[in-house]
Amino acid sequence: MNDVDLFRELNTMKPKVLVDISLANQKNGFAGIPQDTRVIFTTLCETPTIDIDGLVYGMKEFLNSNIEDLYSQTSFFAHICSRNGNLFNEPLINKLLRKISSKIADESLKLLFSKNKFNLYPLNQIISKEIIWRNFFCRTSTPSQKNNVLNKQYVLSQIGVERLLDAATGKAAVPYLDTKNYDFALFSYPRSVKVHKNTKKLIRFHDGLPIFCPDTFASSAGPNYFWGALKQCAPDSYFVCNSPNSEMELQKIIPEASNRTFVIPCAHPNINRVYVDPLALNTILITRFSPIHKIDVQEVTSKWFAGINSIPKFVMSLATIEPRKNYLGLISAWQRLRAQTNSNLKLMIVGSPGWNYELSLAAMKPHIENGDLVHLEDVSTNELSYLYSSASCFVFPSFAEGFGIPPIEAMQCGCPVALSSAPAHLYSAGNGALYFDPYDEFDMCEKIQKIVFPESPSFVSELVANGYKNVARFSKEEVLALWENLFENLKLQS
Asked: 294: number of CA atoms within 13 Å, CB side?
């Protein structure tokens, strides 16, 4: 074989891609970044043109320096699947930052933090890959995707988020991850980590909110780490943005990387419209009612249905409960609409408490007690199809977003959508939704009213039809083609 033939053969080989799935941790549920992480991986699983492995690491560094043997890997999963392994554990992040910035007295931790090279260890064949499915995918993926996920290979690293936080703040050398067997390493969030010289590092960029909207985060830890990590990644990474708006934000933050940015939108999850009967909906309400309210669930749901044999009109919203999601504005607009229309319109909020959620929960409380509002958590994908399919309107009132996956899911289930006029929403929802000013409760109320109490019978059906057309832009086939083209083009640059 001559050099030309060898070059051609090498360039026709499938690209080998390491995909970081650590943020898909099941405790993070339907939060946007974990959901996008799962969807990217399951989407890439469906193409024969790309060879992918999954990368798993934890919140805290794993103290065992060798995680090749069965016992160590068992301990590793016990470690990362515990509550302390949650990558979105804000109090723990703050605690770690304080510990890292102070003098570490423990000699073993000093030794650990002096280590700068981290290997990748293949998942032991004796360990069931179902641990990957249970802890990273089953929360929001469908059973039909399980075989594809289980057929992939997974590698583990003892590197932890605190190491990456420390590197981003400049208090330690940037850790090196030995990716010599991969053409690409795709991280689901900006990570302060170096990869092998023959590996191209890709960063999934969701939005610039930590920089442009720092007041929407629980503490300064998030924005500070985000800024440091982006600066560390800027010289040698490619950035895959989820919308043109996110790409524009990224180029403002790190203009030096402007020639290495691409746009690949979020693919819509595998979710579709289903027939819903009152009994099925009532079962979901009872089993998924948030335990944080400490209330008689049966009593609340009986008031919700008010003894009728049909599903009442209700407005639905889904997001982590934190200030940026604007639940206070939604509750106020919903109350106003009930008063204006003299109706018994219900409200359903689906989401786990994130941070600074106390005011939102307090605003929910009297309406929950009256049976007019239900708050659900830990809803599965199949159950979510029932909720979208039975809602009279889906409302997404966020002050700012990077993309907005839930409105796309609602459209896919034939639910009419009203959402805030954030720039990212104008791109992702197109003409498949009504828009309102998230700071104007009167405007929000008016747009919800147009959907729930339409003046024309054809208005809602036309909006739903536009929604179906819009989500076709984000089908797995369309998005997968973009990923395939990206890897092919970058590989040719080698």
From this structure: 1
The dihedral of CA 398, 399, 403, 408: what is its sign? positive
How far, in Å, CA of 394 to CA of 417, rounded? 5
Q: Residue 196: is it exposed, middle or buried by C-beta count within 10 angstroms (0-12/13-18/19+)?
A: middle
Q: How many CB atoms lie within 10 A of CB 358?
A: 10
Which residues are CB-contacts of 131 (< 8 A; sequence separation ≥ 6)? 77, 81
Measured in whole angstroms, how far is the alpha carbon of residue 86 from the centre of its chain? Answer: 14
Compare 460 and 382 and report the one with higher pLDDT.
460
Categorize the per-residue pLDDT at 327 as very low, low, confident or very high, splitting at 50, 70 and 90. very high
Query: How far is the C-alpha of 465 from the C-alpha of 424, rounded, in Å?
Result: 21
Q: What is the pLDDT of residues 114-157, one digit of tens each?
A: 568 889 999 999 999 999 998 898 877 888 889 999 999 999 99
Distance CA 403, CA 32 (A): 9
What the block records as the tokens of 51 is 């060879």
**Burial grade of 165 (CB within 10 A; 0-12, 13-18, 19 or more):** buried
Q: 257, 205 in Cβ contact below 8 A?
A: no
Segment 422-427 shows an average pLDDT of 93
Q: Which of 145, 139, 109 is nearest to 24 (CA)?
A: 139
Better pLDDT: 108 or 350:
350
- Contact status, residue 138 vs residue 172, Cβ threshold 8 Å: no
Closest by CA to 202, choosing from 227, 236, 237, 235, is 237
Percentage with pLDDT > 70 across the chain = 89
User: What pTM was estimated for this model as a whole?
Assistant: 0.86
Task: Name the band, by pLDDT with cuts 50, 70 and 90, for residue 30.
Answer: low
Cβ contacts of 494 within 8 Å, gap of 6 or more: 183
Q: Give yes or no for a contact between 173 and 167, defined as CB atoms under 8 angstroms apart.
A: yes
